[in-house]
From TrEMBL:
<keyword id="KW-0808">Transferase</keyword>
<protein>
    <submittedName>
        <fullName>Pseudaminic acid synthase</fullName>
        <ecNumber>2.5.1.97</ecNumber>
    </submittedName>
</protein>
<dbReference type="GO" id="GO:0016740">
    <property type="term" value="F:transferase activity"/>
</dbReference>
<dbReference type="InterPro" id="IPR013132">
    <property type="entry name" value="PseI/NeuA/B-like_N"/>
</dbReference>
<dbReference type="InterPro" id="IPR013785">
    <property type="entry name" value="Aldolase_TIM"/>
</dbReference>
<dbReference type="InterPro" id="IPR057736">
    <property type="entry name" value="SAF_PseI/NeuA/NeuB"/>
</dbReference>
<dbReference type="InterPro" id="IPR020030">
    <property type="entry name" value="Pseudaminic_synth_PseI"/>
</dbReference>
<dbReference type="Pfam" id="PF08666">
    <property type="entry name" value="SAF"/>
</dbReference>
<dbReference type="InterPro" id="IPR006190">
    <property type="entry name" value="SAF_AFP_Neu5Ac"/>
</dbReference>
<dbReference type="InterPro" id="IPR013974">
    <property type="entry name" value="SAF"/>
</dbReference>
<dbReference type="Pfam" id="PF03102">
    <property type="entry name" value="NeuB"/>
</dbReference>
<dbReference type="InterPro" id="IPR051690">
    <property type="entry name" value="PseI-like"/>
</dbReference>
<feature type="domain" description="AFP-like">
    <location>
        <begin position="292"/>
        <end position="348"/>
    </location>
</feature>
<dbReference type="InterPro" id="IPR036732">
    <property type="entry name" value="AFP_Neu5c_C_sf"/>
</dbReference>
Length: 348
């Protein structure tokens, strides 16, 4: 069990849902605060930001490998620097956003993208840290976060088993065992067939830690499936409306979808239950609706049971149907009416 703020995370409680704001505030603090309100209305557990500046994450270069030229890329036609100018959350907004979260009963934390971001977030006393997929091989950053002693959530997009092992060992070497790994596919949007959720129980066994899902697919189906495989944390990007645009809007959830995510992942978690054979307590009243053996005609004492007067019907209060052939030809002890449940004490 891991605890972030007042929230426990583990298989014993409903999935911990993180609403990732990313750059969907579109450089408006008012919109950012409205997003927090929408997240609270949807019933999520936490809102997460990203903490960097264009200058801490890349270089002010607009050519070569610093320019996004891939025509299939969601952010094509701009440099990395230009993209992060649009996407970053001004550091002076963090306190206001975190305060709004606290006011509405939400947890708030962030993904730091370099060591200066960790120092800044420590001044805000964040309850946890998230390491983004692209930073899961940044061992110095992971080590610095681990040293805070706070819970760490690491997205595993693109990482090999060896790279994840190094990240996990780095965290644990600092005496920090409060770790969650999120299965993640780092494409935007991601497709269900590329999600490979079968990795979740395998990753849990390999690293002996809690596993969740950082989900970039559309809809909620993949997240619901992840919960049935043991995911205890679900992270999804969210926005006010995809039609309004924004750097991540194309693969972000709208408020009604976020609400459905909260509801349906909880239902999925509740459905897992435990290994169960035989009727549950709730099913016991339904047992009577099984088929069983009944007298199908009025009979006199001494009459023989035949295919005409012995019926296999509902309800299930008579002898089990598996005894049908065994009791055919046997005599009845006393007069019985049609509709009498057959029992052993009626037979001679």
């Amino acid at each position: 069990m891991i605890k972030i703020g007042h929230k426990e995370i583990g298989s014993h409680t409903k999935p911990f849902i993180i609403a990732e704001m990313s750059g969907n505030h579109n450089q408006s603090l008012e919109r950012a605060l409205h997003l927090v309100e929408l997240a609270a209305e949807a019933g999520v557990d936490a809102v997460k930001l990203q903490t960097y500046t264009p200058d801490t994450i890349t270089l002010d270069v607009h050519t070569g490998e610093f320019f996004i030229s891939n025509q299939d890329d969601l952010w094509k036609g701009q440099s990395l620097y230009e993209l992060y100018q649009k996407a970053y959350t001004p550091w002076e907004w963090h306190q206001a956003i975190f305060d709004k979260c606290k006011e509405l009963g939400l947890l708030a934390f962030s993904s730091p993208f370099d060591e200066t971001a960790v120092d800044f977030l420590e001044t805000l006393d964040v309850p946890a840290y998230k390491i983004a997929s692209f930073e899961n091989v940044d061992i110095p950053l992971i080590r610095k976060v681990a040293k805070t002693g706070k819970p760490i959530i690491i997205s595993t997009g693109m990482a090999t088993a060896a790279e994840l092992d190094e990240a996990v060992r780095t965290v644990r070497a600092e005496g920090n065992n409060q770790l969650v790994l999120l299965k993640c596919t780092s494409t935007y949007p991601a497709s269900p067939e590329n999600s490979n959720l079968a990795t979740i129980p395998h990753m849990k066994e390999m690293f002996q830690t809690q596993i969740g899902l950082s989900d970039h697919t559309m809809g909620i189906g993949v997240a619901v499936a992840a919960v049935t495989l043991g995911a205890t944390v679900i992270e999804k990007h969210f926005t006010t409306s995809r039609a309004e645009g924004g750097v991540d809007a194309a693969f972000s959830m709208e408020p009604h979808e976020l609400k459905a995510l909260v509801e349906e992942t909880e239902r999925a978690w509740l459905s897992i239950g435990h290994i169960q054979y035989g009727p549950t307590e709730a099913e016991l009243p339904s047992v009577k609706n099984r088929r069983s053996l009944y007298i199908g005609e009025d009979m006199k004492a001494g009459d023989l049971l035949t295919e005409q007067n012995l019926r296999n019907v509902r309800p299930g209060l008579g002898l089990e149907t598996k005894y049908y052939e065994l009791v055919l030809g046997k005599a009845i002890k006393k007069d019985v009416k049609k509709g009498t449940a057959l029992s052993w004490d009626l037979l001679l």
